[in-house]
Amino acid sequence: MGARNRTVTMAEQSRQKIHHHAGVLLKRLIDHALGECEMTPQQVRSAEILLKKVLPDLKAIEHSGSDGEPLAITIKQYSVGNSDN
Question: Any residues with CB less than 8 A from the CB of 70 and at least 6 apart, and which?
């Protein structure tokens, strides 16, 4: 049981280290994209893998109703207090 707790703790520590250095990795990738610094393909891939551990992957999501129909959205408004206002 102790090994499992240690593994979880090490995973969390690793995640914190990656999160701490995410800004540096991101800046390097941006600089590389702008031609301001050189990076090997391995460095680019490594930075990408590490950033995926702490940054959300933004993907397009399509929402549709049943059978592909448009979503029906109902907005309800509630008021509290005097109805004369």
Answer: 64
Long-range contacts of range 21-24, CB-CB < 8 Å, 24 or more positions apart? 21/50, 22/50, 22/51, 22/54, 22/55
Alpha-carbon span 23 to 1, nearest angstrom:
35
Cα–Cα separations (whole angstroms), residue 78 to 11, 22, 73, 84: 46, 43, 16, 14
Q: pTM surpassing 0.90?
A: no
Instruction: Kindly report, residue by residue over 35-75, the tens digit of the pLDDT.
Output: 999 999 999 999 999 888 888 777 777 777 888 788 888 88
Residue 82: phi and psi, rounded to 5, are -70, 130
59 touches 66 (CB < 8 A): no
Phi/psi of residue 14, nearest 5 degrees: -65, -45
Alpha-carbon distance 51 to 54, whole Å? 5
